[in-house]
Amino acid sequence: MSTPDLLLAIGGAAALLAALLPGVLAKRAISLPLTYLAGGVLLFLLPLGLPEPDPVAHRLALEHITEICVVISLMGAGLALNRRVGWRSWGTTWRLLGWAMPVTIAGVAGAALVLLEWPLAAALLIGAVLAPTDPVLASDVHVGEPVDVENADDEVRFALTSEAGLNDGLAFPIVYAAIALAAVGGAGWAGEWALVDVLYRTAAGVICGLLLGRVLGRLFFHTGKKKLRLAERHDGFVALAATLLSYGLTELAHGYGFVAVFVTACTIRNAERGHGYNSVLHGFVEQIERLFTAWLLLLLGGFVAAGGLAALTWRGAAVGVLLLFVIRPLAGWLSQAGGAAGPRERLVISFFGIRGIGSLFYLAFALGHADFGVPADELWAVAGFTVLASVVVHGVTATPVMRRLDALRARR
After folding, report:
1. Hey, which CATH number is domain 56-411, 3.40.718.10, 3.40.50.740, 1.10.540.10, 1.20.1530.20?
2. Global pTM?
């Protein structure tokens, strides 16, 4: 059997399981990502002669595959949210983005400086890489289908979905800062970084997302000619077109495409909130996202099986453990003081800062732009271990915790 044929067969089997497993695992204390991850480990341990999933050797391919997966998931997250964007209605989100995320970056960077004795650029990079929560792997704690009820999303699911939708793009300025620090050194780059990487790129992402979302929303729902009104045709693949169009045009304008895609999705959702076409678009995106997730987690399992964590030291593992069990929970909890979430909801929101595909993208992207003074396999070991630990810990706890929280909420 040739390797390409084997890879096609495995890819097809993974796609089939991506359709079957959600129903099988529903309400069980094991997540779909955890199942894929375990399957990837077992698959690559078999004597099948599969190519080694080396992120150092295949950095560029990994960067683009994870990039596509993240932008698709961002479109799905934006389409699923039922609350209109507002200062008060999104209060928990702004707290998580404005307080929890910077504190998390600083905490992880500090841990890397103290425990690993990495250069400042590498410590800042790992902080930025591991800070964003993941819109791909957190389906068990995210909102479900779009519905015509604005207050349908509970605070936990809404906060984790909206946070993941935005912080994947907002981590980019810190990644660029780490790249500049590694490549240039000193602080001479700070002025240009603040103007271009922080202000211009973020503003371009928001503006492009709003403009494209309004144009597409009108085309989908409100254009005068029925033949051009795409909502009448129920073609779900248009969501993929909107994703790629928003991301590609924004990147051509040197803005943050991740931000633009999420803003585009929210704007399309607001164009006609009660229309069933929103569910069609979201359903298609969710299927594509599930397919990419299955393939990527099989590769992550293969990375573990092939010895990808060999460069991991106990100090590197400690950085990941501190992030998952101390830094993120503490930062998330403190950021919500005086907010809309109750004590139990604050605890759950703080704990479920799931790490995943976005972290892998950022690390692959950064390593293509600068040398950070730390071996690439060591950086990958720390990031890979943290994602692995997050998939296991959050995957096992998500279903029972959310079930218990829903039961308490219903009783109250």
Report:
1. 1.20.1530.20
2. 0.92
